[in-house]
Amino acid sequence: MSTPILEVTALAKGYGRRPVLRGIDLRLQPGEHLGLVGNNGQGKTTLIRLILGLLRPDAGEIRLDGRVVPARRPPELKRLLGYLPEQVRFYPNLSGRRTLAMFARLKQVPRSEVERVLERVGLTEAADRRVKSFSKGMRQRLGLAQALLGQPRLLLLDEPTNGLDPDGIQMFYATLQELRAQGVAIVTASHLLSEIESRVDRLAVLHEGVFTHQGTIPALLAAEGMPTVIRFALREPRAPLPGALARLDPLTVANGKGPAYEVRLAQAQRFDVLGQLMAHQEALRTLVVHDAGLEELFRRIYGRSAETGDPTQSTAGENRS
Amino acid sequence: MNALLTIAAKEVADHLRNGWVLTVSVAFALFAVIIALAGYAFTGQVGVGGGDQTLVSLISLTIYLVPLLGLLLGYDAIAGESERGTLDLLLSCPLTAVQLLLGKWLGLVTVLGAVVVLGLAVPAGLAIAHGAALVPWVGFLASNVWLGAIFVGLAILLSTVPLERGTLVGLALAVWLTLVILFDLGLIGLLVATGGQVPTVVVNALFLLNPTSLFRFLTLETLVGGGVLSQLGLGAQAPSLAALLGALLAWSVLPLALGGHRLLRNR
């Protein structure tokens, strides 16, 4: 396995007496995309700012490309990182091109980089307009272009698709996909779970300053025993149910139609039940399958911590790295 | 171009592009010409002459205007970046907080310098055309830029306070009011109330606490001939030239150092 581009060990940070992050461990390989999720105020932005060197940790260690990051970061370590903050407005009277030219000078990268990143985010034609005339989505694309200057090896994106329209979101993630193929690692902090669910390799759930869960999405769902809900109805009122389903009690019996049923089961078992149902598909009037996703997982985690007051309390099988 | 100069150049370009330099320079020039022409009207003398009176008249303009411009230029130097979401972006680049602060200061002082030179160019040109010496005018321009640089530094220190820009502009105006108007009034009030019994060393120390008082003394002592301070009965009260220069230097450096400390401490 290659050297992780990012290694965070036992990282802690507080503001005054209030701890914001505690015992954070994280590793990220080149080309990997990590989703950092959590409600507002759980420490996502603080973690990103620590990785960027904008804040000093109270404890713990950060390594970039295998090198321990000192308090005063040398330029070559800063150049490994690209950053897109949440809602950046830039300078209203500068054009997009001039804005990028300024950041190119600060990052000490050649001016030709500006044209490359403008093209990559689809802003070449609008690049000479003043930023104050840009839409919110265009400003986010300009922000991404800025983050890509200097070909960073780790991109840190804080709520990156805020304000983007659906086409913009698609283009945004397509760009990230290309970057990953080139070995760029990405951390995306977001609370838009449905949006990142299918786009990240791994997820880290941050709650009250600790990672409550970390792992691939299927592993997290399985570890939490997140269910699949199968709802089906029969054509005939007295049609028999196959196999073990025969013991089910109907939810409803509609007038002149067959009864409706609901089965909740572990996601790993759903193919067994679906197999049985499909073997009798001529008897089915409707069939709906719903896999619980991140939204439900999230509600469960936050609901449990609200009940117990302990964000780290989790079911067995939790995947920590 | 290194990071500090990049930030400075961006500040200059920003203020040129949004018309700030042009607008303020024109307004400044207008005031300066009016004051230069009519500053000594109470003596029955109207018009720009070749003597010191034009320069003395303009001191009373610039001592109000230059600090105000410095404060208005710099009050959102850091707070504005923070509100735009660009402060973290800038500091995530290979750029230190100190380079950012000094780059801002250099850029804003350059902007202010341009406004001062453009604003005073007409009366200075007229005075020199009427036979005034060049050196005092060059010194006058330089000392105004220095005064402005001190207030830009104070404003940048203010801008590191984590407050909204609306609150910060109020604070900047309060600083201006205190240092430019209320301080002198307070000093006069103290002298009147004590019947002038305040020891010279105390008065001197109080003068050193205010950069505008320092500027007034310095320009009157060094640029205007004929011992104006002595004529005003203040010659014996004034601090020494070394003390003036030392205090001005401290005023130039300390706000920026404190601002840098605040910015680093918060990270």
Description:
The complex is a heterodimer of chains A (321) and B (267). With 321 residues, chain A is an alpha/beta fold. Chain A is built from 10 helices and 14 strands. Chain A starts with 5 loop residues before the first strand and ends in a 13-residue tail after the last helix. In chain A, β7, α6 and β8 form a beta-alpha-beta unit. The longest helix of chain B is centred in the middle third of the chain and has 33 residues. Chain B is globular, with a radius of gyration of 20 Å. Chain B is built from 12 helices and no strands. In chain B, α10 packs antiparallel against α12. At the A-B interface, α3 of A face α1 and α5 of B.
| Overall body shape of chain A | elongated
Percentage beta strand of chain B: under 5%
Helix content of chain A: 25-40%
What coarse outline of chain B follows from CA principal-axis ratios? Answer: globular
Structural class of chain B: mainly alpha
SSE order of chain A in H/E notation? EEEHEEHEHHHEHEHEEHEEEHEH
Which percent range describes the beta-strand content of chain A? 25-35%
Which consecutive residue ranges of chain A, at least 5 long each, have pLDDT under 50?
A: 311-321
Query: Helices and strands of chain A: which structural class?
Result: alpha/beta
Number of helices of chain B: 12
- Poorly predicted tracts of residues of chain B: none
Q: Helicity of chain B, in percent?
A: over 70%
DSSP, total strands of chain B: 0
Total count of helical runs of at least 4 residues of chain A: 10
What is the overall pLDDT average of chain A? 85
Measured by residues with Cβ under 8 Å of the partner chain's Cβ, the largest interface is:
A-B, 29 and 23 residues
What is the tally of beta strands of chain A? Answer: 14
Strand order of the largest sheet of chain A: 6-7-8-3-9-10
End-to-end Cα distance of chain A: 15 Å
Rg over C-alpha atoms of chain A, rounded to the nearest angstrom = 24 Å
Major β-sheet annotation of chain A: 6 strands, mixed
